[in-house]
Amino acid sequence: MAAAVAALFAVLYWRQESLLFAPEKLPADFTLHAAGVSELSIAVDGATISALQLRLPDPKGVVFFLHGNAGNLQSWFVNVDFYRRANFDLVMIDYRGYGKSTGRIRSEAQLRADIAAAWDHVAPRYQGRRVVLLGRSLGTALAAGLAVRIHPDLTILVSPYWSMRAMAALHYPWVPGALLRYPLETWRDVAAIDGPVLLLHGDRDDLIPYSHSQRLQAVAQSGQVVLVPGAAHGDLQDFAIYNDAIAQRLDALR
Predict the structure, then answer these.
(1) What does the mean pLDDT of the chain come to?
(2) CA 20, CA 97: separation in Å to the nearest integer?
């Protein structure tokens, strides 16, 4: 029995990427496009990151969007007209193994390094303009970490989690925390962000409870939580409260 448990824990330790990430691949020759949107290929250490960039003639700034743990740019790069109306460029990347991005996610450090490299690739266009980081679900910890490094004008975290250890304790309480190779401690970075943080959460989210946003607001230096009544985990964009809250904060950036 002990040997079987040890073998199970070994599998969980070495193959936990399959539990955390649910990428959907796209063929290398698949065309991701929309009006006014450029497809980018960003070289990182040992791989190539696929990205899309909405480029407006004279944008107020950019929203750098880090998406959730499933799908790819084809399903995530939507609602482009929302950002056009706000006069913000939109940049979104696929993590390694997602969409047309090559390679595999092998560690949290690698994942964070890829995101930093992708931001550095597009950042020169936005010197002197407003910078907004937006992370959703899995991407919230990654956006918070990047915010500590680049000091954006605004950080938006949609359905954020306190840490991956807290998530594991909620959904897999029988798994020892020491096995977790992706701690993704959102709280630690949120506490270090020196600019405003907007947290949005549905009150019917049964994957990441609303209490995670409440706890993150408590440690943020300048945090605001917007509760979206009736919203679950994946449908916040269907609610006017969600869209209005983001639009108002983008408009307030002068």
Answers:
(1) 92
(2) 13
